Every structure is written in C-alpha cells, then in structure tokens.
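Lecture notes, part 5. Sequence design as translation. It can be helpful to think of inverse folding as translation between two languages: the language of shapes and the language of residues. The source text, in structure tokens, appears below.
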C-alpha cells in the first residue's frame, strides 16, 4: 500500500441504496420545505417520517426494528410499500396495546324500558380486560414472567349510551347485522338490546336510536348467552363517558411516489391527511399517559399525544394505524 499507512488487504467501501417509502418523502431538504412553508405542523408532525414525528404517531422502536429486518438492504433502487411499515406496527401492538372503547361518530341510544327493568337512574357496573390476549400465546389471564396482569377496565352502563352512527340503519342493507328496527345486538361487556326505532330532527337527521334492554343478559353472568345475537357493538356510557380530541391521520401524499422523476411533490399533498373530531371515550382512556398506545376496539390503534394530551384533564389521541390496511379500498 502506498506510503505503508494501510494494512493489507485494503478496506473496501460498500454502498447501498437509500430507503424509498411510498406516500412519504425522506429528503431533508424537502421535509424542511414542508415545515417552513407550514404544510405540516412542525418537525414532529405525525405525518412525516422524522424520528419525533414517528414517535408522536405511535410508532415503537420494536416496530421499526421489525420493519428494518423485513425489508433488508439492497444495492438497487426500489420502493417499499407504506403498508409494510404499518403492518409491522400492528404486529407489535396487537399483544401489548391496552383495549378501550371509543365512539368516533356518536349518536345517543336510549333504552326506553331501562327504568322499569333496572330501576330509575340505576348505573350498572361493567368491566372488560385491558388485554384480551396474553403475550407469547399464554392464557388470557396470564402475564409475562415477572409482571402482573394489567388491571381490568371499569365503566358503567345506564339508560343512555353513545354508539357510532354507522351501527344503526333504519333500512338495513343486505347482510347488515347491527342495529335496525326489530334486530337484537349485544352492547359489548353489557346487555343484549333490541332496536325499536329512532327519532329525527326537522331535517331528517337521526338524533336518538331507541331500544329495549333484554333482562338477565349482562355479559359474564349466568344465562347471559341464552339470547343469541349475530353482532356486538362498542359503546360509551353517557353517565361517565369522556370527550376526547381525536386526530385521524391519513397518508400525506396522494401519489405513491410524490417526488420521483422531478415531480412537484407539493402538488401531490393530500388535503384530507388530517381530520380532527371530538369523540366519546371510556373513563380509563382519559387517564392514559402521554405516548401510551391503545387499541380503540373496532377502529384501530391510537396513541395519547405526547405534546397536547394531559392525563385526566385534556385527552388527545392520534390515529397510529387502522386495524387493517384499507388504503384505496
């Protein structure tokens, strides 16, 4: 070796292709343009692939490590579908994200015979497990070695509860199994109810769904399964449900390769990449710690926002990923 400075054999530099992920950009210059032009809300915006952004979106180190293991490295340019990253997060959170019920598009359901059957003003205590599946395939009431099982979630059911509007159809389409006049469903963790109709305002908007509670059908009690139903729906009690700000994040770009081939990536921005709603959530979710991940049952995985969520006073949740890949479907 010239000059005798390096031992033989000489070192060799290997170069690998950069990571190209669909529906996002990873160029620091272009990310800076999005931030400084206020197209996103800072470097920790959950829609951009910065470390602080991914953490605020709810991504875990384990999910990112699993993603890196699955895609490997290559010397040729290629594009990795964003759904691969989302799938790694779902897989990581499935067995460790505590469950909770949330109603994202609420309408009130009134059980018209509640006072007669249960007593005027009665609130019935209910509970559900925080984790329906134990890690490593153990039984549902087991816990990893050296740890205690997470405490159950506690809430109440009364005459009025919140349900999602999508769980009621006045004229049901074929195959619809949830609430419609004459049909029975189970309120998850609660009672079987039979829908009797609805009330509407002057504009025809449904303001209340009406139902009757079927006695002696509370989940987990003897004889509760004697009334068979084809669907169970999630709900939140009016008496102790909590208002929460929920931020529904979608992909930042409409084009899978927004900056490929010299394209103007700004023109591909998704105008609906963020939707902010007020949801109803069960009491346990209001006590979440910033950065804590949950599965909102039937909706997806959410994380208590690291910046704006205040435990017990101002619940704010960000959508991390849906329960299944529904992009473009």
């Amino acid at each position: 070796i010239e000059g005798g400075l390096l031992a033989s054999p000489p070192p060799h530099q290997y170069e690998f292709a950069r990571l190209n992920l669909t529906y996002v950009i990873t160029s620091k210059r272009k990310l800076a343009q999005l931030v400084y032009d206020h197209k996103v809300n800072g470097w920790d915006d959950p829609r951009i692939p910065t470390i602080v952004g991914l953490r605020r979106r709810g991504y875990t180190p384990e999910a990112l490590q699993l993603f890196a293991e699955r895609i490997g490295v290559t010397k040729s340019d290629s594009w990795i579908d964003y759904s691969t990253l989302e799938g790694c997060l779902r897989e990581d959170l499935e067995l460790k994200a505590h469950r909770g019920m949330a109603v994202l598009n609420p309408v009130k359901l009134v059980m018209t015979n509640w006072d007669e059957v249960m007593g005027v003003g009665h609130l019935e205590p209910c509970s559900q497990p925080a984790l329906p599946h134990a890690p490593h395939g153990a039984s549902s009431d087991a816990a990893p070695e050296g740890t205690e099982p997470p405490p159950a979630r506690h809430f109440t059911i009364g005459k009025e509860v919140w349900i999602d509007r999508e769980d009621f159809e006045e004229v049901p389409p074929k195959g619809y199994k949830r609430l419609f006049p004459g049909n029975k469903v189970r309120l998850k963790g609660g009672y079987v109810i039979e829908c009797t109709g609805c009330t509407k305002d002057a504009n025809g908007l449904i303001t209340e769904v009406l139902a009757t509670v079927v006695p002696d059908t509370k989940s987990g009690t003897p004889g509760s399964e004697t009334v068979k139903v084809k669907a169970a729906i999630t709900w939140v009690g009016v008496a102790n449900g909590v208002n929460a700000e929920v931020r529904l994040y979608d992909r930042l770009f409409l084009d899978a390769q927004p900056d490929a081939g010299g394209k103007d990536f700004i023109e591909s921005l998704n105008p609906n990449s963020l939707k902010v709603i007020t949801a109803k959530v069960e009491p346990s979710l209001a006590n979440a710690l910033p950065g804590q991940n949950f599965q909102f049952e039937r909706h997806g995985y959410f994380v208590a926002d690291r910046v704006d969520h205040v435990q017990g006073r101002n619940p704010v949740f960000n959508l991390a990923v849906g329960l299944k890949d529904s992009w473009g479907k």
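The translated text above is only one of many valid answers, since several sequences can fold into similar shapes. The radius of gyration is 25 Å.
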